[in-house]
UniProtKB/TrEMBL annotation:
UniProt keyword Kinase, yes or no: no
GO terms of molecular function: DNA-binding transcription repressor activity; transcription cis-regulatory region binding
Organism per entry: Dulcicalothrix desertica PCC 7102
Protein name: SpoVT-AbrB domain-containing protein
Entry keywords, A to Z: DNA-binding
UniProt domain SpoVT-AbrB: residue ranges: 79-124
Key word DNA-binding present: yes
Top-level taxon of the source organism: Bacteria
InterPro entries: AbrB-like, SpoVT-AbrB_dom
One term under GO cellular component: protein-DNA complex
PANTHER family: SLL0359 PROTEIN
Length: 137
């Protein structure tokens, strides 16, 4: 059997779409194809089912805990912190975009500071102005 190329674990809508595409496969195979596995030193693939299931719960926007427990982190609740991924991307999860009521296709202007990134949502008036300027150029 040919060795699969390791992919970054899918999250959010990408994860939900892929799982629907793979509906006829076992849950272990779905998790592997969505990137939720590791390869041991001996070359054995191990499925990380817990991370896969947690990512699915997060992608669906299901909140299992009403508030983080005092004795732990409280699962996958919004922490308002993100880390740069190994591919250099910053991913803002669906928990935040749902909380803000954002929809696919919403646009933002990115402003970089010394140690911060500011996002400002582009409103419909600005979008129309921009499109009109591009049409005349």
């Amino acid at each position: 059997m040919a060795k699969q190329k390791k992919i970054e674990p899918l999250v959010g809508e990408d994860l939900l779409t892929k799982v629907k595409e793979l509906e006829n496969l076992s849950k272990d195979e779905k998790a592997k194809r969505c990137g939720y596995y590791t390869v041991t030193k001996n070359g054995i693939e191990r499925v990380n089912m817990m991370k896969f299931l947690n990512a699915l719960i997060d992608a669906e926007g299901i909140q299992l805990d009403s508030s983080p427990s005092a004795n732990g982190r409280g699962g996958r609740s919004a922490s308002y912190r993100i880390s740069v991924q190994s591919n250099g991307n910053l991913l803002i999860g669906s928990a935040y975009t749902k909380q803000m009521g954002l929809q696919a296709g919403d646009e933002f202007i990115i402003t970089l500071g010394k140690k911060h990134i500011r996002l400002r949502q582009v409103d419909s008036e600005e979008r129309e102005e921009s499109e009109a300027m591009e049409a005349t150029a």
